[in-house]
Fold each of these.
Amino acid sequence: MKYNLNKGLTEDLKKAFPNIVPIDRPNYIFKEIPNRFWISGFVSGDSSFCVSITKSNNKIGKRISLIFGTCLHIREKELLIGISNYFNNLEVLSGSYGSNNRSKYIYVSEVRKNCLFQIINFSYIINKIIPFFNKYPIIGVKNLDFADFKKVAELIKNKEHLTIEGIIKIDKIVKNMNLLREVFK
């Protein structure tokens, strides 16, 4: 099985098990997203809700960005295109992840052998992503990240991210999201 994972067998494993004959992995052909709850289940395992706090030249000195995304092996590109289309016929770009227009795209990296579906456009997140997952909820720990993501979205919507107090609130929320969540410590 490990032979068929993204990076294959290490040289040490090949030496330790020289008689292993790998079996080719069958090609998966993506057809369609079966239903909206399937997306919620997929996101529960393979996507992330992130809040980015970066330096800025504004008067607060910080910029807050919401990011919803999924990064998979390049062979899964059609699946990400399917999810993208499900959310609204988004464009596909080839090349690096550092493209200038990064509101909602699929980025493909031949070098890294992966692809990234990412949405950072605030109005798209507020009007499409959050309502979708409110209606078709994520089950499990990822739902806690989504709840925090929504809290930050609400603070941004209310322009609180433009104040020192708002930045402090957002920073406190971010410090308990994803792998930093208390449940994992």
Amino acid sequence: MDIKEKEILGKGIKFYIQEDGKEIARGHLYILKNDLHQEPFGFMEDVFVDESKRGQGLGLKIVKNMVAKAKELGCYKLICTSRNSRQKVHEFYKKIGFKEHGKEFRIDF
């Protein structure tokens, strides 16, 4: 049996906040499809707030905008990952409605 390939295109949207021309907060939302659902799903990646700007609600603002966009685009779910050591980040995500679900596995190249 041969393995076949079929390209599936996705969409990426960067959300960011600038101050004095410098990016101080960002996040990327990727809209993807699979064969399990008609609707797409969202993948949230690289949510970041400059260390000097943390605690001001910028991360919350970015994430809320990504959640709203995923809903607007008809996603059936929105997923994100976080390193095991980032307990504050985990609490942040739980506080705004995300739930732990599964485990992330990775291969670095």
Amino acid sequence: MRNVIGQNSEKNRIVIDTYAWIEYFKGSDEGLKAKKFIDNDFLLFTPSMVIAELSSIYRKEGKPEWDSRRKFISAKSRITELDEITADKSGELKQELRKIHKDIGLADAIIASHASKLNARILTGDKHLKNLDNSIDISH
């Protein structure tokens, strides 16, 4: 992974969510927007929760390219693990976000908590995350 000048700045730190990785690999219009961040000089993070979600999706759909894509994600970004503090904050954040989105899942709260912990923005198009102050919305 490349080193980034001023990598402690939120503008250079990006957490990539499941939505963004899916669109990136599809090569959709939204994926092309994600590509501008993923393939440039940003310090990228992917929560381990995203790996779990992608693994489930690819296996459900019977797509054999998952292994190579998982390796690509690991090469392009730092995989962040769910520690006790982030897990606790995720539960708290889920309850806060439920006031806005009644159907938000714990995975979205975990991804948002990772971004908060890392002082990073979230690259997403997910309806539950795209309107957060620290999100980069690729859905439009």
Amino acid sequence: MNERFLKLSQVQAMLGVSRSTVWRWTENGLKVVRVGSVTRIRESDLQAFLNRHETGVAKAEGSTPAR
């Protein structure tokens, strides 16, 4: 098991967002793992969530222009 599990506070610090923002993201598709009262976020699930919400030049380069 090489998967890294992050605490909510680690996600907050990494991305510079509030705890309520992280919880809002969980309501909008960010997966969490709960065991009893412990809540963790898989690093790969966080990356997938961020990739789904990515915008900008990098995303636009791979897309086809609208006609």
